[in-house]
Amino acid sequence: MGEGRVGRGLTRRDFLGLSAGAGAGIVLAGCGGGPQNNPAVQGSGGDGGKTYDGPKVELAFWNGFTGGDGPIMRQLVEQFSSEHENIQVGMTTVEWPEYYQKVPVAVRSGKGPDVAIMHSDQLGTNAARGVIIALDDVAGSLGLKEADFAPVVWKAGIYNSNRYGIPLDVHPLAFYYNKSVMEEAGLDPNKPPQTGDDYMAALEELKGAGHQGHWVTPFPFTGTLSFESILWQNGGDLYNADATKATFNSDEGVEALTWLVDLVKKGYSPENVGDGAAGTAFENGKNIFHWDGVWTIAVWKEVEGLDWGIAPLPRIGSGTGFWAGSHNFVIMNQPSADPNKVQASKVFINWISEHSIDWADAGQIPARKTVRESSAFDELPQSPVAAQLDSAHFVPPVPGIGDVQPETFDIAVNEAVLLRKEPKAALDEAASRADQLLEENRQKYQA
């Protein structure tokens, strides 16, 4: 996902920094200045991205694909430019935390990108601050509709009834398992556990063979994402319907966090697992069942001697569910936007979306249903996970929501997994803080 690690060194903080740093950067952009105030944007509708027949333009395309996915996107950009004589695209990559701080300021000063990538949980914040423009005309003219995508990823691009992102991919949390060690422990390497009871039975078998089978990290990657996934499986949610109040400290939330903590208490996981250590341990055959994003497929493919498999997360709760994010294309609301560049950007977005099977080589799941259901995608390792996308959950696209997690349930998961606080106490304290932040955000992002 370009989330930073993508490799032995991914500090998961790099990815979460995209949320933590976003709020500070967006505030600098200030309110107002939306598309309704930008004549160049208003008049740039054209055919919404089907064609561009104007003069030659050079587009600045920014993203945070600094990991193994970066070269794949760069190849697509170069191919697009070679096929469009009147549209040349220059790609700039910046680490996600820095990216979300720089982009709003650059856009406001007229020095930002023409087209860019943003995560789905940042769309509401950037739309509210007038950093990006609505793309309803692109979706409409190209005939894109919810049926063409997984409903959850389609809805994630909408803020205040307008579409601000054209989804490129989905990157959910997935279940990786070490086939060699499973076989040595007497488990069937071709049948990874997919129910809570089977999962615990398998961990017990692994423990009997001398393995701590599921390393629980107290850090966002992947402790917080695991907590969120089990919360949703239990039928709970992070916030109420309009994201005005935290609900992650519900009985469902306490049960989810308790399950993770018990893995540590019962010896299925070491204590005090370091940031990134669970992934390294998986590569080394010490962590047998590893929950991580689909983007790590690019990592495991390159580890010599690692015999691994991938499946949807096991059903620890009573239902299905797992955390997911999405990269979305956005167009910037430049103060003096060039209508030709805006239209050319739409053509670029549509072209990359149509070629997203190539992007899937980075481990991503294409957002477009036609690409996802192609025979070419069926041959990729992430296809079993894609089959359950209807069970994916996204953080709601509410302005400022990315600032809430690092100061609330991230901390609760950390304290509980490190055995410093009981799960209920940690979540109750975090929920109280979250309610304060949600109220502050409602005031901060008023137009």
Topology, element by element:
Layout (H helix, E strand, L loop, with lengths): L11 H18 L9 H4 L14 E7 L6 H14 L3 E7 L2 H13 L6 E5 L3 H6 L7 H6 L9 H5 L2 E2 L2 E2 L2 E2 L1 E10 H6 L11 H13 L11 H14 L17 H15 L11 H7 L5 E5 L3 H4 L7 E4 L10 E4 L1 E5 L7 H16 L1 H4 L5 E2 L2 H4 L2 H4 L4 H4 L5 E2 L10 H4 L1 H9 L5 H22 L3
Parallel strand pairs: 1-2, 1-3, 10-13
Antiparallel strand pairs: 3-11, 4-5, 6-11, 7-8, 7-9, 7-10, 7-12
Helix pairs in contact: 1-4, 10-11, 10-20, 20-21
How would you portray this structure in words?
With 447 residues, this protein is an alpha+beta fold. The chain has two domains: 12-168 and 326-393, Periplasmic binding protein-like II (D-Maltodextrin-Binding Protein, domain 2, 3-Layer(aba) Sandwich), CATH 3.40.190.10; 172-323 and 408-444, 3-Layer(aba) Sandwich (D-Maltodextrin-Binding Protein, domain 2). Helix content is 43%, strand content 13%. The chain has 21 helices and 13 strands. The protein has helices at 12-29, 39-42, 70-83, 96-108, 123-128, 136-141, 151-155, 179-184, 196-208, 220-233, 251-265, 277-283, 297-300, 339-354, 356-359, 369-372, 375-378, 383-386, 404-407, 409-417, 423-444; strands at residues 57-63, 87-93, 115-119, 158-159, 162-163, 166-167, 169-178, 289-293, 308-311, 322-325, 327-331, 365-366, 392-393. Strands 7, 8, 9, 10, 12 and 13 form a six-stranded mixed beta sheet that branches. β1, α3 and β2 (87-93) form a beta-alpha-beta unit. α20 runs antiparallel to α21. It is globular. Mean pLDDT is 89; it is low at 1-46.
